[in-house]
């Protein structure tokens, strides 16, 4: 391939798979890396060990999409290089460091598609670190990948479309769902109806989930406040306030999440410019409709560039690859690109509505008690963070990290940084966008100290 | 929008040097403006390795280093926090007989300075520090040295200065400094004019521009040491360790994380920012796993670098300007300014108040670069500073041999 290094695609979820496919169609041979043992990403994650469950049982209404993606990726075999269980931990000067087991591979790339996806967003609440509490995504992974449930009597709570989806998936799997607690009032859900013309299938599917949950006797509570998870050794119950009344339900497992947060560390290490996104309440890498970033040759696709869901991720992956192909001077499929952008824009408008149906409970932050754990890696409480803000007169999130250790632990702030930014904003009465964003640092996830430089396999070195 | 501020002393740069000077000056009752282009303590002072070490410094730095040594155990009284300062001891290891001989020569040459160095042979070392592996022939222990948390200490000095009444102005870069009739006029930030009787240039890696503006250019370059930190581990390391000849230094903090250095990073496109190189970070972690068997199954969770000013003779510039009355410099600490900074702050305050100091600092005069005819590099040119070679734990023994 005329001596140029191959393009690198990070992530083999819906976005990464479609990107790789488009690159291959244009005659390129990309290297695809993913931490996971198999392709599919979050939503179309595959089982660790094959079992008797059908695709229908695993992926529900999305089974066909899941099968198509898995099949199309398998068909790329021999025309791409694919490294599963490979963690890309550093990017600099056109070189990627990739840990595969205890070997480190350094790869020069020409064209980088970041399709790194998203993770659950949470706000700390009392008891959220008790054993038995999972994120909504984590609860789903347990079911999908391992085929086990997080408890025998489970409560799902929070906000975002995953809330009802996962509750429904557990119900279908025969688990006793004790209740669903939604942080938003019921009226907020009516906003979804305005989205019927934009994404009828999605809205109808959502209505079906709630209808089936109700039908099977699952209590749905809206507008919950002051939520507390109770238990000594592990989760025993959850208590909350609703319309001025105290409520409580016993359970042994909780799935909790407040929609999703984009994984943007690699875009940061790649040097991409960021801007604040009001809708996602987060700093996101800048990109145009095609997925081009501020750095030439670096492209973004999927939930890693702002939350838009799996259907958008597939289209954005292909669109970003078309941009890479065009920028590389290869024949450009202009009409296909325009069609993809139109669909992305339609999904984007629906996303705005979803946000009004599943708003983030920002008002919870002011009421957080000092004892509540904010950072679980470093065991830092809300009170400790409040004191550090006062003692050092802090108004910026990286300074807060320096003096409080928030974001310094194993997860590098992946779990606590959005909550920390919300807290800093409330405590200092500054707008969220003015408290800044945590700068990413390598390694984006922990790497073993014994990590031996490895020669590249021949086919990847070309 | 134009604002005016009149003070006795304006300090350019709120690193540990500028902040400790500000606090000392407030203690003398002088009015102070502490100006930083970013956040106080966010540059070298807040991101360094945290070594609080006198051992291995050149002889001429030891009186100043001893003065600082007296400050470290008093941090709680001074700034309200102990900065996680631990008097763990500092152990310099020797890989070869030649390295051991040079540790011995150093110990002999500074015997009158009160460091209390203890030379330790191979067997003794194995017995006392069983967690150190590798081929080590011996070491030199300075029991009074230790380590501290730079993030807390540096921010702590700036906050204490603010509480003591200093005008601490962050995100306020000094863009021009001129000498006028009565003293100095500084332009800073968004339309601020600071009038000051005296000025301290403690702008770290950015200090060269100010020296040059006052007609005394200096051969300052930049270095970017790389740091690695592990996840928290059970207690392993009982002292802060370094290696004669360089390549690795390591300490373990109370909550269990091990901090390891020993390589240099490279600047990004904007030379004010730097980041570790992948292979540099890899070398450090592999060396650490080799020297400390207890780390073999650990994970590294974060890498970083900082931007540091370095001088060709590895000594800082401290003292009065050679061209401009009322101007004092304190920069160019060449990778080893954390430990001595609290002493430098006191010395600067004395210089401002009395014109002299009780601590010998002649060796650090900016005028030492006058006679030399080496090519000068502006501080915005980082080519020299961006050498990406193994980073010795800063040590300065050239003067001894
Ligand atoms: C746990 C979880 C469950 C979800 N479940 C659903 C669902 O059921 N229905 C739904 O509509 N949406 C779900 N979502 C939303 C989901 O993000 C999108 O629908 C969709 O998966 C986005 O596709 P993507 O390709 O952008 O990213 P993803 O599917 O998230 O794929 C990103 C991939 O990148 C890899 N990766 C990231 N960083 C690195 C790195 N540094 N090195 C190597 N590999 C890396 C990851 O391993 C992952 O496989 C879920 C999200 C999460 C977090
Ligand atoms: C990674 C690393 C590891 C190190 N390890 C050790 C160690 O273990 N032990 C040790 O003793 N030393 C160590 N050092 C060295 C030590 O950190 C420095 O020597 C010391 O912190 C220097 O302090 P400073 O105040 O001069 O500089 P800095 O902390 O860099 O402060 C200078 C300040 O000036 C500000 N400034 C710059 N330009 C302007 C302007 N125009 N207007 C206003 N403000 C301005 C900057 O924003 C900055 O805050 C290390 C350094 C690094 C980078």
UniProtKB/TrEMBL annotation, chain A:
Q: Which GO terms describe its molecular function?
A: oxidoreductase activity
Kindly give the InterPro entries that the UniProt entry links to this protein: BFD-like_2Fe2S-bd_dom, BFD-like_2Fe2S-bd_dom_sf, FAD/NAD-bd_sf, FAD/NAD-binding_dom, Metab_Enz_Cyan_OpOx_G3PDH, Opine_Oxase_asu/HCN_bsu
Give the matching SUPFAM superfamilies.
FAD/NAD(P)-binding domain
Q: Name all BFD-like [2Fe-2S]-binding domain ranges.
A: 374-424
User: Per the record, a Pfam family?
Assistant: Fer2_BFD
Domain FAD/NAD(P)-binding stretches: 8-317
Keyword tags: Oxidoreductase
Q: Which domain of life is it from?
A: Bacteria
Q: What is this protein called?
A: NADPH-dependent 2,4-dienoyl-CoA reductase, sulfur reductase
UniProtKB/TrEMBL annotation, chain B:
Q: What keywords is this UniProt entry annotated with? A: Oxidoreductase
Q: Segment Disordered: which positions?
A: 367-401
Pfam hit, one: DAO
Start-end of Basic and acidic residues biased regions = 369-401
GO CC term (a single one): cytoplasm
The record's GO molecular-function terms, alphabetically, read: oxidoreductase activity
- Keyword field contains Oxidoreductase: yes
Instruction: Tell me the SUPFAM superfamilies matching this sequence.
Output: FAD-linked reductases, C-terminal domain (SSF54373), FAD/NAD(P)-binding domain (SSF51905)
Q: Which residues form the signal peptide?
A: none
Establish whether keyword Oxidoreductase is in the entry: yes
What residue stretches are annotated with the FAD dependent oxidoreductase domain? 8-351
Q: What is this protein called?
A: Sarcosine oxidase subunit beta
Protein species of origin: Bosea lathyri
């Amino acid at each position: 391939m005329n001596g140029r290094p191959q393009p690198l695609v990070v992530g083999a979820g819906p976005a990464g798979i479609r990107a790789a496919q488009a690159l291959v169609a244009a005659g390129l041979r990309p290297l695809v890396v993913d931490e996971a043992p198999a392709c599919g990403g979050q939503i179309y994650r595959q089982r660790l060990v094959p079992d008797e469950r059908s695709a229908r049982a695993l992926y529900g209404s999305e089974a066909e999409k899941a099968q198509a993606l898995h099949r199309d990726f398998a068909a790329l075999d021999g025309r791409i290089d694919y490294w599963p269980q490979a963690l890309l931990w550093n990017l600099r000067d056109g070189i990627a460091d990739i840990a595969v087991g205890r070997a480190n591979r350094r790869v020069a790339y020409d064209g980088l598609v970041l399709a790194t996806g998203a993770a659950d967003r949470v706000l700390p609440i009392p008891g959220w670190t008790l054993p038995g509490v999972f994120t909504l995504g984590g609860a789903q992974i347990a079911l999908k990948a391992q085929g086990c449930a997080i408890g025998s009597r489970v409560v799902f709570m929070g906000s975002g479309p995953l809330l009802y989806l996962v509750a429904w998936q557990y119900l279908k799997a025969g688990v006793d769902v004790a209740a669903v607690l939604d942080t938003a009032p019921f009226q907020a859900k009516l906003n979804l109806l305005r989205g019927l013309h934009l994404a009828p299938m999605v809205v109808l599917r959502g209505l079906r989930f709630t209808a089936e949950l109700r039908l099977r006797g699952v209590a749905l509570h809206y507008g919950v406040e002051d939520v507390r998870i109770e238990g000594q050794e592990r989760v025993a119950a959850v208590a909350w306030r609703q319309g001025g009344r105290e409520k409580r339900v016993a359970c042994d497992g909780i799935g909790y999440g407040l929609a999703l947060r984009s994984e943007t560390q690699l875009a940061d290490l790649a040097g991409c410019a960021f801007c604040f996104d009001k809708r996602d309440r987060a700093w996101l890498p800048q990109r145009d409709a095609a997925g081009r970033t501020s750095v030439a040759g670096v492209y973004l696709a999927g939930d890693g560039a702002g939350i838009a869901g799996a259907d958008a991720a597939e289209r954005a992956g292909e669109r970003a690859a078309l941009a890479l192909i065009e920028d590389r001077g290869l024949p450009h499929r202009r009409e296909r690109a325009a069609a993809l952008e139109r669909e992305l824009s339609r999904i984007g408008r629906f996303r705005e509505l979803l946000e009004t149906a599943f708003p983030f409970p920002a008002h919870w932050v002011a009421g957080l008690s000092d004892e509540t754990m904010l950072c679980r890696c470093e065991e830092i409480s809300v009170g400790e963070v409040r004191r550090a803000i006062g003692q050092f007169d802090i108004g910026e999130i990286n300074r807060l990290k320096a003096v409080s250790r928030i974001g310094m632990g194993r997860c590098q702030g992946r779990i606590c940084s959005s909550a920390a930014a919300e807290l800093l904003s409330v405590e200092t009465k500054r707008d969220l966008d003015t408290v800044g964003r945590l700068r990413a640092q390598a390694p984006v996830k922990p790497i073993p100290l014994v990590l031996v430089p490895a020669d590249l396999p021949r086919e990847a070195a070309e | 929008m134009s604002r005016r501020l009149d003070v006795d002393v304006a300090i350019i740069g709120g690193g540990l040097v500028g902040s400790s000077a500000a606090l000392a000056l407030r203690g003398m009752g002088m009015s102070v403006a502490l100006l930083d282009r970013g956040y106080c303590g966010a540059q070298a002072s807040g991101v360094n390795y945290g070594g609080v070490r006198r051992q291995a410094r050149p002889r001429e730095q030891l009186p100043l280093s001893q003065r600082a040594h007296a400050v470290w155990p008093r941090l709680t009284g001074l700034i309200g926090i102990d900065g996680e300062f631990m008097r763990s001891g500092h152990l310099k290891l020797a890989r070869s007989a030649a390295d051991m001989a040079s540790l011995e020569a150093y110990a002999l040459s500074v015997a009158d300075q009160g460091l209390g160095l203890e030379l330790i042979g191979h067997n003794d070392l194995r017995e006392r520090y069983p967690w150190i592996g590798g081929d080590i022939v011996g070491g030199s222990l300075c029991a009074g040295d230790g380590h501290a948390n730079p993030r807390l200490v540096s921010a702590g000095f700036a906050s204490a200065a603010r509480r003591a009444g200093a005008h601490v102005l962050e995100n306020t870069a000094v863009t021009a400094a001129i000498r006028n009739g009565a003293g100095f006029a500084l332009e800073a930030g968004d339309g601020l004019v600071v009038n000051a009787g005296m000025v301290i240039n403690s702008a770290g890696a950015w200090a060269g521009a100010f020296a040059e503006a006052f007609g005394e250019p200096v051969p300052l370059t930049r270095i970017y040491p790389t740091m690695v930190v592990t996840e928290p581990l059970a207690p392993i390391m009982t002292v802060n360790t370094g290696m004669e000849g360089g390549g690795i230094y390591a300490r373990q903090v109370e909550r269990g994380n091990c901090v390891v250095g020993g390589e240099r990073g490279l600047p990004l496109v904007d030379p004010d920012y730097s980041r570790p190189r992948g292979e540099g970070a890899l070398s450090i972690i592999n060396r650490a796993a080799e020297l400390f068997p207890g780390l073999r199954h650990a994970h590294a969770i974060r890498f970083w670098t900082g931007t540091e000013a370095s001088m060709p003779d590895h000594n800082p510039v401290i003292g009065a300007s050679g061209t401009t009355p009322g101007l004092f410099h304190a920069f160019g600490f060449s990778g080893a300014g954390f430990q001595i900074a609290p002493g430098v702050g006191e010395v600067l305050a004395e210089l401002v108040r009395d014109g002299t100091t009780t601590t010998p600092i002649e060796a650090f005069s900016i005028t030492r670069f006058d006679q030399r005819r080496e090519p000068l590099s502006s501080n915005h040119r980082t080519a020299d500073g961006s050498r990406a070679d193994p980073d010795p734990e800063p040590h300065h023994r050239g003067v001894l041999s």
